[in-house]
Amino acid sequence: MGTGAGTKLLKEIGNAQRSVKISSPYLSPKMVDELVWLHKKGIKVALITSDKFDGRNYRQEKSIEPLVVQNRHLDEEANRVRKRWLFTQKALMTESIALTILLVILFLTSYNSTYIFAFGMAFLLFLSYRYARRKAKSTKIYSYTYSPLFPFKVFVAPDSSRINDLFIHGKIYIIDGHTAYLGSLNFTESGTKYNYETRIRVTDIEVVRKIEEEFDALYDHPDLAFFGIEDWGKSIYHEPIS
C-alpha cells in the first residue's frame, strides 16, 4: 500500500518470459511503450482498456496509437490511370508554356495583332492542364486496413446518456500465467509510481488460473460495446488517396 505500490509489479512485467495480460481502464503512453517493447521481445501481450482517459471527454488515442498498424494497399489499375493523367498534365503544361513563349516572341518581333487570337489556344491548353491535374489528384490509388500490434480490446466507457452501461474499472495484471496482481493502480506512470494505491500479489496457481479465466471471459464478452480496430485506425491515421 502507498506510493510506489506498482514497483514490484513493473519489475515482474519487465522480466516476463512468456506472457503478460493487463486490464486497466486508463493508460499512459510510456507504459504502453513497455508493452510494445515486450511484444518485440516475443512476449505474448493482451490488453483490456477503456476509450476515455481518466473519465474525461477525450479518448486515449495517444496511448493506443502504437498498437494500431496501418496497412496500405495499392490499386494497380487506378495507379496506371493516375500515371496517365500525370503524363497528360505535364505534356499539356509544357505545350501551354511553349506555345505562349512562341506567341510572345512572334508578337513582339512582327507586331502582328493576329497572334493575339492564338493566345486563346494557349489558354485552352492551360485549362486542359488544370483539368488533368485535378483528375490526377482525385484518383484514389490507396486503400487502408488496420491490424493490432498485439491483441487488445478498448471498451466504450459509459456516459451520461448510457448510465446503465458497464464500466470496466477493475485492474488485473497476469504475468506468465503464474503471478497475478490485483488492486487500485492503473497502468499509468502516476498509478504505478506516485499515487497512493493498494495492490495484492497472487501466486497460488489455481487462483491465478481463475483470474486469467475471468480476464479471457471479459476480453471476449459478447454484450460489451467496444471500438474495433478499423474505428481506431481511421481515427488515428491520415489516409491519403494518392
Tertiary shape: rod-shaped
Structural class: alpha+beta
Helix content: 40-55%
Give the overall average pLDDT: 87
Q: What string, H for helix and E for strand, traces the elements in order?
A: HEHEHEHHEEEEHEHEH
Query: What's the story with the biggest beta sheet?
Result: 7 strands, mixed
Q: How many separate helices?
A: 8
Order of adjacent strands in the largest pleated sheet: 8-7-6-1-2-5-9
**Rg, alpha carbons:** 30 Å
User: How far apart are the termini?
Assistant: 55 Å
Low-confidence stretches: none
Give the percentage of residues in beta strands: 15-25%
Number of strands: 9
Keywords:
two-stranded antiparallel ribbon, rod-shaped, 9 strands, 242 residues, alpha+beta, 46% helix, seven-stranded mixed sheet, 8 helices
Task: Please provide a written account of the structure.
It is a single chain. With about 240 residues, the protein is of the alpha+beta class. Helices cover about 45% and strands about 20% of the residues. α4 (about 75-110) packs antiparallel against α5 (about 115-140). The chain is rod-shaped and about 100 Å long. It starts with 6 loop residues before the first helix and ends in a 6-residue tail after the last helix. The mean pLDDT is about 85.
